[in-house]
């Protein structure tokens, strides 16, 4: 078996497959594990800035079987997460199965021997054969490109954010940051920190700006999305999207007001699509709005044209002179061309891209027993718990412990899903989550059942939930009141995968730590 990439999902999948007796080999493009969270100077590999802070609380990045170290900060910086992921790999001796600095250039099917053949950039004439392939390359693979009007006349630097490393190099320089997303906010804030000159935050649409942590109390904003509450949001998201959107929009708007006061129209952030229709952009940033308020960052419309060697004209006619650099924070595209022998695509329409035919955004029905893509799902909230859940479920499926539905049912699901998805993408245009969207509840319940977590049998209203509440109320309260944490994926024995002996203690300690933080925050707030 071959796993592409040493990302968090790739590492968990590798450990789980190995525990079940599979012969696993991992190929990683970078020189270390951890994906974008592990720093690299290689400009051909995307890496999070050292200044980047995660949007979610620390327990959203925790991996099963491996507690966060004592004193791990609630607001997680990229280097902290990179170190944790590396220590996970060392603890479980994963490095011995990983080949680093290996870039896959081609994937083909050997129909005679029923195997997959992989070709690598350093051995183009010698493909390697594998029985099964798990694709875990993440969503930051292929930087989107953009040619700006008048670009040939511009003499400053134009670079994609994936090429940005040491932003202190822009000290005293005037910089335009193009885009409105978490990366754009990270880059703009880091430029302020490193003493850049004028910083223009250029965007054509607004965004939902969410303060990830209360500055007074230190309590992360997302801890309100507890394990017991999340299923309600899943139900509303699927069956009452307008109500769901109104609730989430109201919560984010109140977060903004409580944090920074009025969202002034001249900043260009107000006109933002709702969260119920898949078009929204949520930017988690502690510093973006304060930096706009104090003038450190100038929020301006999109770029109309580059009007000279160092001149940028914006959509409203405003002109910025003396621009030294433009940093394009315009996102990434999935490099799907390499997977055309594994995945059937529905042809592109005028307003939608070609859609991959994947059951649950993971399995191509024709090759569901030998190929899985674990990086094509975008959930509301933190992404790591969802990727880990898929990485726990897949080994159980391929080991024969959790069956997939018949081919006809998988194909029908794909057709229905793509009909829904086409409507979402047409409405969102290039700014939504594309074909990565799923109904969060359907996807999650399927994988919880396949992985054998038992989580929503023991937290909810069924007999098992009442039994846990009666027998072990402390554990029940811990799981119910914590935000989604992968420790809870390994606490119950459902006859498929052995539980983690330390799961109960880890969950209770996490809950107590969160309760202590809330109490301390409440005292500070008074």
From TrEMBL:
Alphabetical keyword list: FAD, Flavoprotein, NADP, Oxidoreductase
GO MF term set: flavin adenine dinucleotide binding; N,N-dimethylaniline monooxygenase activity; NADP binding
InterPro entries: FAD/NAD-bd_sf, Flavin_mOase, Flavin_mOase-like, FMO-like
A matching Pfam family: FMO-like
Family in the record: Belongs to the FMO family.
Protein name: FAD/NAD(P)-binding domain-containing protein
Organism of this sequence: Didymosphaeria variabile
């Amino acid at each position: 078996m071959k796993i592409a990439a040493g990302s968090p999902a790739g590492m968990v999948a590798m450990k789980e497959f190995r525990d079940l007796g599979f012969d696993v080999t991992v190929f990683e493009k970078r020189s270390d594990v951890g994906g974008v969270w592990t720093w690299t100077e290689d400009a051909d590999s995307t890496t999070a800035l050292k200044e980047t802070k995660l949007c979610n609380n620390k327990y959203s990045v925790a991996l099963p079987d491996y507690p966060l170290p004592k004193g791990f900060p609630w607001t997680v910086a990229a280097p902290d997460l990179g170190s944790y992921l590396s220590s996970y790999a060392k603890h479980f001796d994963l490095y011995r199965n990983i080949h680093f600095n290996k870039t896959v250039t081609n994937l083909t099917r050997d129909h005679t021997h029923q195997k997959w053949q992989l070709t690598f950039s350093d051995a183009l004439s010698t493909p390697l054969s594998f029985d099964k392939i798990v694709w875990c390359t993440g969503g930051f693979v292929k930087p989107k490109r953009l040619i700006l009007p008048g670009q040939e006349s511009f003499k400053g630097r134009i670079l994609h954010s994936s090429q940005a490393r040491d932003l202190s190099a822009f000290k005293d320089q005037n910089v335009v940051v193009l885009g409105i997303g978490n990366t754009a906010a990270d880059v703009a804030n880091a430029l302020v920190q490193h003493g850049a000159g004028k910083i223009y935050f250029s965007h054509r649409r607004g965004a939902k700006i969410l303060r990830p942590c209360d500055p007074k109390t230190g309590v992360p904003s997302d801890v309100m999305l507890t394990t017991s509450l999340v299923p309600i949001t899943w139900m509303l998201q699927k069956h009452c999207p307008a109500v769901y959107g109104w609730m989430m929009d109201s919560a984010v708007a109140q977060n903004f007001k409580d944090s920074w006061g009025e969202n002034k129209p001249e900043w260009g952030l107000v006109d933002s699509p709702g969260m119920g229709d898949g078009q929204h952009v949520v930017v988690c940033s502690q510093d973006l709005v304060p930096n706009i308020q104090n003038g450190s960052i100038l929020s301006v419309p999109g770029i109309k044209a580059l009007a000279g060697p160092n001149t940028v004209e914006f959509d409203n006619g405003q002109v910025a002179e003396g621009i030294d650099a433009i940093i394009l924070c315009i996102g990434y595209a999935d490099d799907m061309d390499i997977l055309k022998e594994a995945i059937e695509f529905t042809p592109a329409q005028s307003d939608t891209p070609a859609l991959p035919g994947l059951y649950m955004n993971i399995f191509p029905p024709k090759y569901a027993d030998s190929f899985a893509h674990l990086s094509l799902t975008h959930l509301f909230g933190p992404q790591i718990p969802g990727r880990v859940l898929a990485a726990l479920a897949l080994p159980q499926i391929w080991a024969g412990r959790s069956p997939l539905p018949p081919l006809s049912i998988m194909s029908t699901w794909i057709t229905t899903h793509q009909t829904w998805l086409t409507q979402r993408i047409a409405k969102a245009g290039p700014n939504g989550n594309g074909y990565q969207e799923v109904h969060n509840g359907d996807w999650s319940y399927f994988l919880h059942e396949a992985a054998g977590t038992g989580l929503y049998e023991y937290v909810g209203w069924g007999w098992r939930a009442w039994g846990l509440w009666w027998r072990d109320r402390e554990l029940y309260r811990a799981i119910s009141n914590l935000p989604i944490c992968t420790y809870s994926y390994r606490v119950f024995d459902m006859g498929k995968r052995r539980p983690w002996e330390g799961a109960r203690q880890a969950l209770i300690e996490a809950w107590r730590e969160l309760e202590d933080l809330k109490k301390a925050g409440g005292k500070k707030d008074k």
